[in-house]
Amino acid sequence: MEKTQQQQKKDRMSKVRGFEDGGIRLLKKGQKGLVHVIFSRFGLVLLLLVLQFGGLFSILRWFGELLPHYLGGSALVTAAMVCYLLNIDMDNSVRITWLVVIAVLPVLGVPLFWYTKKDMGHRMLKARFIELEGETRTQLPQDEKILERLRQQDPGAASLMQYLQGRGGGFPVYENTRVTYFDGGEAKFAELLRQLETAEHYIFLEYFIIDEGLMWGRILEVLARKAAQGVDVRVMYDGTCEFSTLPRDYPKRLEALGIRCKVFSRVTPFVSTHYNFRDHRKIFVIDGRVGFTGGVNLADEYINHVEKYGRWKDAAVMLEGEAVRSMTALFLQMWCIFQEPEFGRFLTGKIPAAEKATGFVVPYGDCPLDGERVGEMVYIDMLNRARKYVHIITPYLILDGELETALRFAAERGVDVHLILPGVPDKRFAYALAKTHYAALLSSGVKISEWTPGFTHAKVVVADGREAVVGTINLDYRSLYHHFENAVWMYGADCIRDIEGDFQTTLEKCRTVKPTVRSIWQGKKLLHLTGLVLKVIAPLM
Q1: Which of 2, 107, 375, 470 is least crowded, fewest Cβ atoms below 10 Å from its Cβ?
Q2: Residue 11 half-sphere exposure, CB side, CA atoms within 13 Å?
Q3: pLDDT value, residue 120
Q4: Which is nearest to 235 in space by CA: 203, 265, 211?
Q5: Predicted pLDDT at 84
């Protein structure tokens, strides 16, 4: 029976189209993109969503006509909502946004607030994820001796680890893990292909974006070949891929190659708040002993095979050793949302210690449903403990009050806080909003530079030459509040020198932003106006 299944997998592989670049493709020309989406089954889903939004808008208009009769007018409702918003537990930036929206558009703002607050679309998901998080904790015990060694070296860092192990999600700190830093998608891609060839038992990957082309084609060729050899290959990607990069039936195409596939929160013809929560993680695990993460998705622009916004600057890390266990757990949490957990099967085996491993490593995740802003808390803690410098590369800068205060206060007490952002944006609205923060940050002594060759998509924070984070977490509301994210915190690892070196190399091709209107906005009046208008609703974007 097993031989027959293996032969069937090999037969399927023989029917897949191969290309000169060594990769394979499952889509023909014209089977992706906006035009294909509109005229596919997915287009019908979008049409139904539009009709529902139209119906909801009509109800709100009808509600607006009745509101004065039943509640004494919009002024009374607005006053009641203001009192309520001022007395609930909420981030102040979000609170101000809702106050403005409800004051200006009460008929639309009040129902929208209660609709989002009730979380109708993801209550079940929240309960399930908290359940899985609890089960994960039992599989990831903390070695107290390791934590004590970290405490002896840096009590402040050990306190952060206590948070990550507790309310932060149950992520332990590890030793015996080697971390390799990649200063771009090209370097990660080359090493990833090499490591994939060593897979013997399983390959797990979870990505925000997958798009057919050279990069995914080469990876898919290895995945299909490994699946034919009996390796357990699983692919998971975010449902937003169905908008532009992959058709709705792509999971079936992968399953035909023996690759198991799931789509997180795919778009359905029902209006729901759960669409706000996206799987922005980027995890690649091989046999539980090697793991990759960072900003690099699986599409050609990430390796500069094609250029969309000038050169693409990104970053990633490869972990080898015991800490990969937490990356495996993060993948399984998402994979098992609608099935029985498999933690015992994949998290109990012994992982060989990596050679030449130094320092402490903590892979961690951030879930938007548990009430903890783990990604933001880690960044703020690093800023508060820094003594010499904090150097950051980020694609976006849409800050809440807490994070902006932490950046400014670190600079005001003499820490060299320096941010590198894109010189060529991928999203004009996000670019405009980022610039609205420049003046306040610069006034406190924060340094800001823009990378002129193109778009910086790296998510990197390095502090004092001893501590760093590389992962998927941007400095914006979407990453910090609404997305499933992951990252790797490290202390004393050899690669931290490489991370700081990459920052300095990137800085050589940057424009220094000065604290003047002309330097910040570069004479772009429409962009300036856009930023000022959008600032009011920044937390909702």
Answers
A1: 2
A2: 6
A3: 57
A4: 203
A5: 81
Residues 181 and 499: beta-carbon distance below 8 Å: yes
Residue 505: count other Cβ atoms within 10 Å of its Cβ: 10
Contacts (Cβ under 8 Å, ≥6 apart) of 162: 147
CA distance 223 to 119: 38
**Chain Cα centroid distance, residue 244:** 19
Burial 413-427, CB ≥16 within 10 A → b, else e: eebebbbbbbbbbbe
Separation between Cα atoms, residue 356 and residue 505, nearest integer Å: 26
Beta carbons of 79 and 519 less than 8 angstroms apart: no
In the chain, the amino acid numbered 528 is H
Q: Which amino acid is at 526?
A: L
Q: Where are the beta strands (DSSP E) in 41-198?
A: 177-182
Residues of the chain with pLDDT under 70: 1-20, 29-74, 91, 93, 107, 115-122, 267-275, 540-541
Tokens 């790797």 found at? 488
Through-space distance between the first and last CA atoms of the chain, rounded to whole angstroms: 53
The answer to whether 365 and 396 have CB atoms below 8 angstroms apart is no
Q: What is the DSSP string of 309-343?
A: SSEEE--EEEEEETTHHHHHHHHHHHHTTTS---H
Residue 328's Cα: distance from chain center in Å? 17
pLDDT of amino acid 470: 98
Structure-block tokens of residue 364: 């961690």
* Token pair belonging to 296: 């690099």
Judge residue 267's burial from the number of C-beta atoms within 10 Å of its C-beta, 0-12 exposed, 13-18 middle, 19 or more buried. middle
Please name which of 118, 178, 93 lies closest in space to residue 405, comparing C-alpha atoms. 93
Distances (CA, A) of 405 to 10, 272, 384, 530: 58, 33, 10, 24
Q: What one-character-per-residue DSSP string does 352-370 give?
A: PPPTT--SEEEEEEE-TTS
Neighbouring-strand partners of residue 489: 362, 469
Q: What does DSSP assign to residue 172?
A: -
Residue 449, classed as helix, strand or coil, is: strand
Helix axes 74-87, 106-117, angle to 10 degrees: 40
Q: Which residues contact 99 (CB under 8 A, 6 or more apart)?
A: 82, 85
pTM of the full structure: 0.88
Q: Look up residue 150 and give its two tokens.
A: 């970290």
> For residue range 306-324, what is the model confidence (pLDDT) as tens digits?
999 999 999 999 999 999 9
**Tokens 């998901």 belong to which residue?**
125
Checking DSSP bridges between strand 416-422 and strand 447-451, what pairing results, if any? parallel
HSE toward the beta carbon, residue 465, CA cutoff 13 A: 4
Nearest to 395 by CA among 291, 506, 239, 298: 506
Per-residue confidence (pLDDT) for residue 16, from 0 to 100: 61
For residue 407, the one-letter residue type is L
Structure tokens at 52: 């529902």
Q: How far apart are CA 94 and CA 117, in angstroms?
A: 12
Q: Between 123-139 and 324-335, two packed helices, what is the crossing angle to 10 degrees? A: 150
